[in-house]
Structures are given as C-alpha cells and as structure tokens.
C-alpha cells in the first residue's frame, strides 16, 4: 500500500473502477474523484451557495460514486467514506494522538492575540496531556454528576419561562419559533456548568454584559463558515470587515472568561465555604493545567456547546411534534422513571433508554457536524482502496444517517431502533469516536435529556406542518426555516 495524497493527483470519476486481483488493494489514485480543480470547485461552491448545501452535495456524491470518493475544494482535500465499517477502520488507524482538521480562523486569532489553543485546536502530545486532565471533570461519570444539578436548575427555569408566557395567552397555548429561546437556554446552561455563574438569559431583560456575550457567540459562529475553506490571510485581504467581526467576537468571549476567572479567585481569596462552583473552578483548584490552558479550553467548550446543543433540541422537538406516538411513549417513560422515587439525577437519566434513543435518532437524521474527520497514522485500506497515512479522511454522517445501506427505513423517526439487538457499532458518531470523541459529549447529552424530561412532563408539543425540514449547513446543520411549535400545558 503506497502513494501520496494531494490535490494534483488525477483519478477516474467512474463509479465502478476495475476490480483489483483478490487480496490486492487498488491504489489511492483509483478512488473516484469529485472534480479535478480545487480552486474551480471552490469557485463553483461560492457561486452556487454550495457551502450551505454541502451535506446534500456529499450525499449526492455518495449516490454517484459509491461509498468512497475524493474531493478537493480550495485548500480542502479529503477522502470521504460512508459506511460504519470504514469508520471502524479509521478508528483502528488513528494512533495515540488522533488528529482532526483544524479551524484556521480560530487558530489565527489565538496566534495574533498570543492566546493558548485548547484541545479542539491542538494535536499531538500537547492535546493528549490537556485531554487527560480535562476528562476527569468534563466527561467522566464522577465529573458529570457534579454539574448535573446546574443543568437541571436551568431546565426547570426554562419550563417556568414557558409557563409564564402561556399564562398571558387567553388560548392557554403558545405557538413560537423556539430557536432564539433554545440558543439562550443552551448558553445559560453550559455557562452555568462551565463558569459557575448564571447569565440571566432566561429573564425578561438580560443585562447588557450578558447581551454582549451572547451577541459575540452568535457572531463568532456566523463568521466561522465563510472562513472555513479559505486561508485567513486571504480573507483578511479580501473581506476585512468579516475578519474584524470574527476577531472582535473572540475578543469579547475571552474577556468574559477573564471576568469569570477573577470572580472565582475572589471567592477563593475571601475564604468562602468550599462548594462545587463549576468546571472552571474545579480546574483552577486542582492546578493541574496552567491558567492560560484552562481558559483556552473553557472558551472552546463555550464555543462548541451552544448551537451544537440548541439545534438537536429544536430538531427533536419538531420530530416529537409530528410523531405524537413517540412523544407519548417518552412521556410514559419519564413518568415511570419519576415514580421510582427521589434518586440521583444520573440514575434518573440512566433509567430512560428511550429518551437516549430519541437523541441518537435526532442526531442520525440531523447530525450537528455533517462529517467526522481523522488523519490515519498508518496506511489504511478503505473499500479496497489504499489510503496513505496522513490523508484527511471524513465519515459522511449526514449521508450515513439517511442511507438505506446502513439503516432500515432511514426516513422514519424511530428511537426504538437503538434499543434493538441489531449491531449499531459505529453508526452513532455524532460525537465522534475514540480518544478524540467530543469532550463535551456528556455535558451536551445530559443537558438535552434534562431539558426534554422537564418539557415533556409539562407540555404537549404540536406542529401545524408535518413536512420534512429543509436543512442548510452553516458551520453546523440547521433548518433553512425554523419550524413553528405549539406548546400546551398538560395540567
């Protein structure tokens, strides 16, 4: 198995290349290729809004070329695969320092401002040493149990907010585009767990400081997509305004983290009675990481934990609204779990497998990130093609989730499929896999489960339109137009 990956390689685009002799893998150059000119492909993407339709174009490419193909767009050069067994092959070849594609605009901000990078942007030994420390507070069962009450409090407050709004409506119901409220909920919940402070975003009038922070997070996410496929230096020259907005947003987010650190240190200095005050406080108290590394990682958690949680919640509520039978089954499971009496929140959540299945089903149909990336550390054979070490390989999550090759009746929203005896290995990859799976996974999963638990036990959710949601890719997968949902109190 040999060869070099690169945008200059030529390959046939025929979907059915000649088969190699038994036991011999085809060369890298034989992988079907989507387009030959990297920069022409980039131009076509810009002209046709291809970035927003990236997930649909990838799905179409798999249908055209089969379960593996190559693609070059600007500086972006990758091998894309569809099937779970290929994801398993990438897992086996990722090594002890799994590497993912970096976000150059985020890295450029850190370099220009002399900030450290966190584990989302790091690779190699520096990534591993930070990750091992962070695992204990962020993704381990013991660490998760400590911040669950914070997430539970915010979920209860969201229900109270909805009840106040409904009480002002003579029809005793509320029909709403919920995206803005879900964005504020997830930012409030994740910030409380990370920083140990409430932002007040679920109040009628959040203070100016909180408004600036939420505006900065929104701007950072909005400006990241146009910077994804083009070198930052070129963007700074071609679209200076976009670059200034991106930089200013990150500066505001870093300033917020600095203020939170100062508050935590003030509490330490005052000698107040020690109690759990969030993930950042625990990391500062343990002092196993330098201060600038703690800040860098907490900020990346903030950036990665808002829309990436809000969007799955929005899609889940929509699917439950148009699948009332599933909604009723989840409500029954929640009632049975609560009937077992007061218990730790972690035990309550663990007694609701169908609710976990609903989140998996949502992320199958609407994965936040439409791909999972890895750079294999050794040559790997995918679909009988030899892929050289160091090649950017992507598992197409959106296409996989909707492929009849992988899922029976893929168009059907069926949480029960995850509770069957069927082999689901490497089919639920929304949070990645292996040592480099999303470190915020438990934070996101428990935040979403607590939200749904409290909402479903208090409201019935309906929607007028049962039609499929059209989605666009805007750094994450999102609805082209958010659905209108109707909330009616159960009591």
From TrEMBL:
Its EC number is 1.14.15.4. Pfam families: p450. Heme binds at residue 438. It comes from the Eukaryota. The keyword Oxidoreductase applies. Keywords: Heme, Iron, Membrane, Metal-binding, Mitochondrion, Monooxygenase, Oxidoreductase, Steroidogenesis, Transit peptide. GO terms for molecular function: corticosterone 18-monooxygenase activity; heme binding; iron ion binding; steroid 11-beta-monooxygenase activity. Residues 1-25 are annotated as: Disordered. One of its GO terms (cellular component) is mitochondrial inner membrane. CDD domains: CYP11B (cd20644). Its cofactor is heme. The keyword Membrane applies. InterPro entries: CYP11_CYP27_families, Cyt_P450, Cyt_P450_CS, Cyt_P450_E_grp-I, Cyt_P450_sf. It is found in: Mitochondrion membrane. GO terms for biological process: aldosterone biosynthetic process; cellular response to peptide hormone stimulus; cholesterol metabolic process; cortisol metabolic process; glucocorticoid biosynthetic process. Belongs to the cytochrome P450 family. This is steroid 11beta-monooxygenase. It comes from Pelusios castaneus (West African mud turtle). The lineage of its organism: Eukaryota, Metazoa, Chordata, Craniata, Vertebrata.
